[in-house]
Amino acid sequence: VLFKQTMSSLKAESVSKNPFFQILRQTYNELYSLAAKRGWKICVPHSTTISGATLNEHFFKSHILQSSPYFKEEYVTLNGQCVIYKNGIISTKTGFDSPRKVYVLGEELFYTQDFKSFTVYSISSPLIGVYNNNNHNN
Question: Do residues 124 and 47 make contact, with C-beta atoms less than 8 angstroms apart?
Fold first, then answer.
């Protein structure tokens, strides 16, 4: 089953107020700090799509992306899964239970205490797990 979303009414939201981002910064601060320090990309699922999701370490690691050493558009999650980011869409490639495409609704630049920048993407739904969305087509 391929989950594909329409742009529908989902709009980028303030990442700082997103529960996923808040839990990542507070409960998984070590993971957050490492991602920030290394300049990795953090994907933050829209807050309306994560109710009922199990926000554990595996879930967060699947939403932190490192550049692939092989292909420009490819990224590897901290769980070793592979995604492709092209034309505003992140598509799962390998290591995921099911194929999924999510839209990048917006991006924000954050800074570490040393003024090193890292990117945070606001995405239309999680890359893994069950998500709350009335707009997906099977």
Answer: no
Phi and psi angles of residue 87, each rounded to the nearest 5 degrees, phi first: 50, 40
Cα torsion 63, 69, 85, 22 to 10°: value is 20
C-alpha span between 59 and 56 (Å, rounded): 5
Q: Are 36 and 120 in contact (CB under 8 A)?
A: no
Residue environment code for 13-39, b if the CB has 16+ CB neighbours within 10 A, otherwise e: bebeebebbebbeeebeebbeebbeee
pLDDT digits (tens, 9 = 90+) for 35-82: 999 999 999 999 999 988 889 999 999 999 999 999 999 999 999 999
Q: With contact defined as beta carbons under 8 Å apart, do 44 and 26 qualify?
A: no
Q: Are strands 117-123 and 136-137 parallel, antiparallel or unpaired?
A: unpaired
